[in-house]
Write a structure and sequence with these properties.
The complex is a heterodimer. By secondary structure, chain A is α/β, with parallel strands linked by helices. Helices cover 32% and strands 14% of the residues of chain A. In chain A, helix 1 packs across helix 2 and helix 3 runs antiparallel to helix 7. Chain A is globular. Chain B has a single domain, classed as 3-Layer(aba) Sandwich (Rossmann fold), CATH 3.40.50.150. An 8-stranded mixed β-sheet of chain B has the order 3-2-1-4-5-8-6-7, with helices on both faces. In chain B, strand 2, helix 3 and strand 3 form a beta-alpha-beta unit. In chain B, helix 1 packs parallel to helix 2. The radius of gyration of chain B is 16 Å and the shape is globular. The chains are: A alpha/beta, B alpha/beta. Chains A and B meet through helix 9, strand 12 and helix 10 of A and helix 3 and strand 3 of B.
Chain lengths: 381, 196
């Protein structure tokens, strides 16, 4: 960790099951941004697993989701929980660290060591809302700069779920020479009105919290936890399926036998969401949430390429694989199919499949054996 | 290629080496693997069953989950040397449109299908008076995915009407070839190579 960040405070957990390198790169050159501004001294915090081979062609970049981080297969320094994709990344696993050099970088705008709104501006104060509005492509620019510093000209593959899938698409489209394959899971080539609407609810919840103070809460020692927690609660609903919620909670009451005729968390689902919201505020910066959701809302890969999604991939010679889940209503199958059709129209080698899994959007993080087989097979070529 | 289904083996032997193919209804990818590994082809697939698609991708093939009736429209004109439709035509909603699409996407098309006028089928219907359930057509009428049966002569008539050129044709009974002359009675399967 950089130590210069105002929030959050991190402690390092040393008990990694898989040997992990934790590094922070400081970019020497200013990072140009889509908004027209540029950022000096950008830091990119990343974890890596496995060894880069002599040909430097066995690297896999994993791009994380909105509230994810670089701790893909190592314990989270704040929560102490195992990495978010330990079921997929490790020795002998589908993303095999005995075989591949696996990199995962905290995205630009986030709060786990890479430069974001909580980082210090040149005047020594946190950027807060002075941080430029960034895009998915800006996040990818930072990752490409990381690849440059590691001497990796061309990835074996870029892999990502949800917002990670957007980065994988953006990298393959905007830096076509940098990857031989792109694996995009439960993602989309553009945010829909519904996607933007849910994000706006979250942002308004944060900004309506008086503790937010126009983003300048860092000096006060406490962030807009209420607002951030509500934002997380609303978002969390979109990550689950209706059937999944019903199976898990139904209308069951929480530690009580009758309704209280009040506004406590009578229902288990309320209690669960409140817990999810509060736990989230321990590890995430509210301004980062604003900036990253904005980047996702601005994402429209076709718009960047003259309105034709097929044109986005014109220069790519990568293999593509798209996976959706039948219960994901956040980025439903139609979005992945739309990308597959565009790749087809561009004549690119593309696979696409909708897997059946009960967990909604979060299926990409959970136990779906068919996904393991697909990822392993796709990466092995 | 000996492990391939007989109609697929015919197709695999007659695709020009190094060509590009789209296998529509590619199943578990057996033909695509043979074309890729033994003929050096650039093979892509379209398959409706997600379990089959997952198996293909796990085997390193590029396959899209989709429906021949709706998803062929998303392929550009002349994007492959061959469009292949094996044992799938009879399951489509609009076989004629699917054939037109194959010849739009591919410069040539291989089409294989079961012959509904094979003598065993005729006999079964004639003697039993029931929709035939034969080794080649083992599923009862109410469960079969086959909704548009044709005979070899029906198919010849359709492609004639469409102005499509028959470049070649193979007629099979199990692993054995049958001559074109008596094919409509004696062949269980037919493979046609078509061009516009």
């Amino acid at each position: 960790m950089t130590g210069e960040k105002a929030a959050p405070k991190c402690r390092k957990v040393m008990s990694a099951a898989i040997p992990t390198q934790s590094e922070t790169l400081t970019l020497q050159a200013a990072l140009p941004l889509d908004c027209g501004r540029s950022l000096d001294g950008v830091q990119v915090a990343y974890e890596s697993y496995g060894k880069l081979n002599e040909a430097r062609d066995n690297a896999i970049l994993i791009a994380h989701a909105l509230t994810g981080d670089q701790y893909v297969a190592s314990p989270h320094p704040i929560t102490g929980k195992p990495g978010w994709w330990v079921r997929m990344v490790g020795p002998g696993l589908p993303i095999d660290t005995d075989r591949y050099f696996v990199i995962c970088a905290n995205v630009l705008g986030s709060c786990m060591g890479s430069t974001g709104p909580a980082s210090l501006d040149t005047d020594g104060n946190p950027y807060a809302m002075r941080f430029p509005v960034i895009t998915i492509r800006d996040m990818v620019r930072a990752q490409v700069a990381l690849l440059d510093s590691l001497g990796i000209k061309r990835l074996h593959a870029v892999v990502g779920g949800s917002m990670g899938g957007m980065q994988a698409l953006s990298l393959a489209a905007n830096f076509p020479e940098r990857t031989a394959a792109a694996l995009i899971i439960a993602s989309t080539a553009r945010h829909s009105a519904q996607n933007i609407a849910f994000h706006e609810v979250g942002r308004q919840a944060i900004m309506a919290d008086p503790v937010w103070r126009g983003g300048d809460y860092y000096a006060h020692g406490k962030g807009p936890e209420k607002g951030l927690s509500v934002a997380r609660m609303a978002a969390h609903i979109t990550y689950l399926s209706e059937a999944g919620l019903t199976d898990k909670f139904g209308r069951n009451l929480q530690d009580r036998s009758e309704k209280t005729f009040g506004f406590d968390a009578d229902f288990q689902v309320e209690s669960y969401l409140r817990h999810q919201g509060i736990a989230f505020t321990d590890r995430f910066d509210a301004n980062s949430y604003l900036y990253i959701t904005r980047a996702m809302d601005y994402f429209d890969l076709a718009e960047e390429h003259g309105g034709m999604l097929a044109n986005a991939f014109a220069k790519s010679d990568a293999r593509f694989c798209l996976v959706s889940f039948d219960t994901d209503w956040l980025y439903p199958t139609a979005e992945s199919r739309h990308i597959a059709h565009a790749l087809n129209a561009a004549g690119k080698p593309v696979s696409f499949m909708e897997l059946s899994a009960p967990f909604g959007h979060d299926s990409f993080l959970l136990d779906v054996p068919a996904l393991d087989r697909v990822i392993e097979g796709f990466l092995k070529q | 290629m000996s492990a391939l289904r007989p109609d697929l083996a015919v197709i695999a032997q007659n695709v020009a080496p190094g060509s590009s193919v789209l296998d529509v209804g590619c199943g578990d990818g057996a033909l695509m693997l043979a074309l890729r590994d033994e003929r050096g082809c650039d093979a892509r697939g379209l398959e409706i069953d997600p379990a089959n698609v997952a198996e293909c991708v796990a085997a390193g093939l590029s396959v899209i989950q989709g429906d021949a009736d709706t998803d062929l429209a998303f392929y550009p004109d002349g994007v492959v040397d061959y469009a292949i439709l094996s044992q799938t035509l009879q399951t489509t909603m609009r076989p004629r449109i699917v054939l037109e699409e194959l010849l739009r996407i591919g410069r040539k098309a291989f089409v294989s299908f079961p012959n509904f006028a094979h003598w065993r089928v005729r006999l079964s219907l004639l003697m039993g008076g029931r929709m035939p359930v034969t080794p080649q057509l083992p599923i009862a009428w109410y469960e079969t995915p086959n909704i548009h049966f044709s005979s070899i002569d029906d198919f010849r008539a359709l492609v004639g009407e469409m102005g499509v050129k028959v470049e070649d044709a193979w007629f099979l009974s199990g692993n054995e070839r049958r001559s074109a002359a008596a094919a409509n009675l004696r062949a269980e399967h037919a493979v046609f190579l078509l061009s516009k």
